[in-house]
Prior knowledge:
Blueprint: E1 3-6, E2 19-23, E3 25-27, E4 33-35, H1 38-46, E5 51-55, H2 64-68, E6 73-76, H3 100-115, E7 120-123, H4 125-133, E8 138-139, H5 154-157, E9 161-166, H6 171-176, E10 180-184, E11 190-191, E12 199-204, E13 210-215, E14 222-225, H7 237-251, E15 256-259
Helix pairs in contact: 3-4
Amino acid sequence: MNVPFFHHRPVPETRARPVIGVLCCNEFSERPIQAVASRFIEPLRRISGATVLLVPALSDALDARALGDRLDGLLLTGSRSNVAASRYGGQSADDDRLDTQRDAVALALGAHMIERGRPVFGICRGLQELNVLFGGTLTRDLPDHQRREPDLAFDDLFEHAHEVTLVEDGILATSIGKTRVVVNSVHEQGIDRLGSGLAIEAIASDDGLVEAFSATPCGAPVVAVQWHPEWKVDASAEGHAFFRLIGDALRADCDVGFRLPG
């Protein structure tokens, strides 16, 4: 099991905040717009100590290489859409809510950031995108992972929760200081086959679904969770730990590494 460590150098007060890209979604209505929930942005500023740059999910308008060279890190957020089944050889469903441009930008920009040795983090859909990027597959056979009552209030979605077991000595267990935590459960897709080179960080205690993973393919961490650590983050020690981890990774520069135990 790879165990992360970060060597911190003191950050001078005059040093500019690191810049993290946060990928938007396409919201289609009478006036198509780029959108990202503010709850993802605020903890990055306050807890991670980062400056946020919103990245449009418009594949024709984005040069992933040019942008990736200017970012210190990337967060792939949750979304109301699903990753298209064509991206991982799966079967599409009639009720799939898709954002194919987000798929394209997430995979292209994520790949470039990883190749450049920059930290990349994923939340919910972001975990699913990264699993696909590493060659994994997804499933929608998750009847107990999201409430499906009609006309359910948005906030009530996040009241649905279950326990996850964190891998001992993994990056999340080390950061949180626990091996069992209760997390919200708001997702239609989940990991079917784990991508190549990804290390399991957490599994659902009831059904064994992989709920978090990590990797360091090019020297910087790739970490993703299926739950939403940004939701009511000030009431969640686990949420704070996740965003502190992002801040640590953004400031680690070339001093990020992994060591084998023992």
